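Hi all, long-time lurker, first post. I run a small reading group and we've been trying to get comfortable going from sequence to structure in the token notation. Rather than ask abstract questions, I figured I'd post a concrete chain and ask someone more experienced to write out its structure so we can walk through it together at our next meeting. Sequence below, copied exactly:
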Amino acid sequence: MTDLSRIEDLVQRRTHEAGDHEGPFSIHVLGLGKTGANVVESFVRAAADSSLSDGGFSALAIDIGDGDLAGVRDAAKSSSGQVRTVALPALDSETLFSGLRRYREYLKAEFPRYYWNPNYEPWLPNDLEIPAADGHFDRALSKAIYGVEYYQGHEVTQELDAFVAGIQDSQATPIVCVVFSLAGGTGSGIVVDLARHLSNIKLGRRPWVLGMGVLPCDGDPDEVFDGRLFPAINELDCMVDAEKNQGVMTVWGDLYKNPFTAGFFAIPQNAVYERTGDLEATHKAVDAGLAAFLVRDGGKHVYESIKALNWLNVDASSWHPAIRGEQSDRWLNLLAVDDADNAPAISDRELVDGVEPPFAEVRWYGKSAAGDTAAVELPKTRVDAAVVTYADASPAGASAFVPKVSKLDLRWFAPTRDAYDTFDWEQKLMAHSWILDLGVLLCEPSTRFESMGGECLLGCACWVVVPHAAIRGEELENVPLA
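-- Answer (accepted) --
Happy to help. Here is the structure in token form:
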């Protein structure tokens, strides 16, 4: 079966629809940073009025400082699920660096393969000023605060353990969703380590763990596009793309295997922003739409979208719902949502011209929504979009799913790479997070092997077996991946 005919088979025969033997499901949402906390709040309120309300969900919101967590706690007052929050402290410099100097001990205990570097130093500049809890935290600093708190067994560790216990105790099939903003500092700085701790260590890669990154939009402040997005998207690229991820594991071991066992959904916002013209209204509409998608029909629609990815990513001769497909460099799967009164869409501001994803699927919920297909704006796809109506669903609404695009397909990828190139070395460092503790600056060229990625920070031989050109999204010159 060719790739195109397989896609047509998926769309026409609905091979990814859940059968009677699949489910019920429980949904567990872990929100990071301000964006993650806002989605958790919307999710908890939506779950209270859904079929998940009878113990079929849980949620945990983690942020630096308490300012954006009050809404989650307020929503939890009328919730039947386990809902928790963690306000990570904005550690003072002495406490932070005291913890960072012990990082070798933490990592050696976590995985024996860790190389005990005698030249180890904390990755943060010694003269770094720590902002107040309500300030902006760069990705490298967010990573440090989370890591010091986690490895010393403080509140975030205890609450993460309680969250995991709820997942493991679920009588239904659990689906874990990790939600954060790709454009922020806190969520994208923490997620690269927390997802590893959650999926690869605490859950043992058994339940589905789905990454959900909210994409930036044209209404975001200019500094969002100043280059910080380039390391964030590349770290995820080297986590989720199986070939690049193998190049990381070749050096650093299996604990760095892609933690997002269910795949990665990217949530676009530009179409909503074009409709509202207001950033706060855009965020509220996207939060509400995403929450509605997660809780609808007891999580069935989330599961079927994950199942569709497996159908596409697993060889046809060995396909089975229990097999988890390996992601390629086209690991980004767009999930368009809006509030209940508006059709979801994907703006032409999201993708570069000429990109043709394999297919799209529009799901209408409720009789009032049926037939409004013309209101949905989607990119051209290789196979005509599938439109499915669930006439008896309540409340009314819709969602649109467009799988398998790459980082190079994102309209802002090349501009943010150019902006990153204008950074001085310390700015580049502070924009990174993943594997900084291992002494690797991912987006810079290796200091050990020509053409490979991963500058060594510690005067040793740290690197990754991923071509630097592949990280930058440039033409490879006969350089094989691992």
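A couple of things your group might point at:
Residues 186-202 form the longest helix (17 residues).
Residues 478-482 have pLDDT under 50 and may be disordered.
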